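Case study 2.
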Amino acid sequence: METASGMINNIFFIIFPIIVYQMFVTAGKRNFFVSHRTMLTILFSLSIILCMNFPYEFITNDYIFDLRQVPMIVGALYGGPYVSAFLFVVAAVCRILIGGEGTDIAILNQLLIAVAVPLLQPAFMQMQWATKILSVFLISFFSLSFNLLAGYFLFDHPIDRLYDIWLLLMINQGIVSVLAALLIEHIMRQEYLLNSLLKHEKMDTVSHFAAAVSHELRNPIQGIKGFIQLMQRYEYSREKQLEFHETILKEIQAAESLIDDYLVYAKPSYGQMVCISVKREVEHILKVLGPYALSNNINIVVKSLDKEACIMADRQKFHQALVNIVRNGIEAMPTGGKFYINVATHNAEVSIELADEGCRMTKEEVQRLGEPYFSTKTKGTGLGMMVTYSVIRQMDGHIKVSSAKGKGTVFTLLFPAATRTTTR
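Prediction:
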């Protein structure tokens, strides 16, 4: 029972640091044993120290054994010469402090691992998965074989109980080494898959942007091209030419507006960030969109406008974000209805609630709001909400969206509150 529990402890000392590294250290650094190499070296050093300080009896009381060689071998193969050298120093100092019979053979064996195993690293990293696992097992196997042979030829230690003790020791250590290597290979494969997925998502986003830009710019460009061809082919009166020019300018402005929307999302640019009164800005938006709401039979109801609500924002971009949400809410009620606005301050946070009585959105649609080229409208491009989400994030705010059947959709914009001393 003591042998089994001691072996389990040693295995735990080896596996646990690898799991800790994978869980906490590699977050955002998807390159095993390269990013935060120092941290993993320290963890493997702790593995060596714990294994050496908690050995276990193997089969008989004559053999006290530990698995210190496993982190040394795995660390040398995946970490390289510098990691291997540091682990050797740790193991050697610890072995000298422990003392006792076999210290000389142990340090000689550790030196061999520290020198020889890193030389195999370049070839090892190019091997296939199955070949790597076999190589780890053989290195571990021959490492203990060196202990046996060095004791016999250099220090005249007898070779006794070779098959029933040493062979089992070699197999035991080899299996644990394979388990550690398997875990590392699994982590490396998961990180490779994650990198591939992230790269694919970036390329997918780029393709969406390219498709959106080409699709949206084609319309105004085709219009401009058509008018220019007409003026080249036919003679028109000055009045008609001016009408064509005006139409062309509108199409150019539409294209510029589209490009600006994409630039705002990709790399928002801001004017001066000032402390603004939310009440004043909302009232301005109501003046701008009031006629549009009335023409669509929409009644805008202001529940509350907190006079003290102030935030740090770029006034122009803030207007743009609010206009996008209010306009979408109005368009979500084709048969008319009410649009509600509520501004309040709670616990140093300003909340702006914008609610419509239109068709509800599904949970999937709510989660996808702000994605490139996603819109719930049949003719929408998704640019408005994409820009809105980008603008709100850049102002240290965030958006909550709730949608329920019979209640419409509620957008809640949350911003850190600011003082009124510099309000403009």
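The beta strands are 56-58, 60-65, 274-277, 298-305, 310-313, 337-346, 349-355, 398-404, 408-416.
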